[in-house]
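Render 3-methyl-2-oxobutanoate hydroxymethyltransferase in 3D.
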Amino acid sequence: MKVTINTLQKKKNIEKITAITAYDALFGRIFDGEVDVILVGDSLAQSFCGFSDTLAIGIDEMIYHTKAVCRAVKQSFVVGDMSFGSYQNQREAIKNAVRFYKETNASAIKLEGGLNRVGIVKSIIDEGIAVMGHIGLMPQFARSEGGYKIKGKNELDAQRLMEEALALQEAGVFAIVLEGIKQEVATQITQMLKIPTIGIGSGVDCDGQILVWSDAFGFFKDFKPKFVRYYLDGEELLKKAIRSYTDDVKTKRFPSIDESY
């Protein structure tokens, strides 16, 4: 059964929302139906493309990867990230969001920003495009902020985050990602909002959780954020498998008679 916005919103205060990233049809197919939401995140810039941050990926690449995921996913709710520089003003934001929606089969797009993005968010939603918000630690701002900074550490910052969440809800977003926010602040925001919150590094009280798949399954180990839990040592498993394969080739154990025409 296909997950919709209504499905996700009805889970608030009843059942936790599960989400994971995917960047291609292969993993989109594996994760489909296992989680509620699949995010085609601009995190692919780091884990998939080898860049040091998310800023290097453009709208063309995001559309390409989102189309690939959408071709494989039949049940989960697919969200595509708007890339850095693709929504800097209202005109560009609408143009790129409409293109994203038309060229992919994504159920929604996601963009980063609080009070400074409310007008842009509303203008995109007014075009009939579903938008997921994203506040707190915003990776697209990490370079300008001098690193990945945890948010909500003081009363003023906490109040700003709550104002941003309410403003985005009023603008019409159907859900908000809370990233890198102190747990007690994320809890307050979640309890205050009518729409679901999806946490990443923001504590257990968010309405749902998301992780980058290559982090969660142990394939990306350049650094490990505090909020990441390894559910698999994927890198080591794959290395063992490739070593077994190369050994079989070198010793002529592969291919066998049964594997030859």
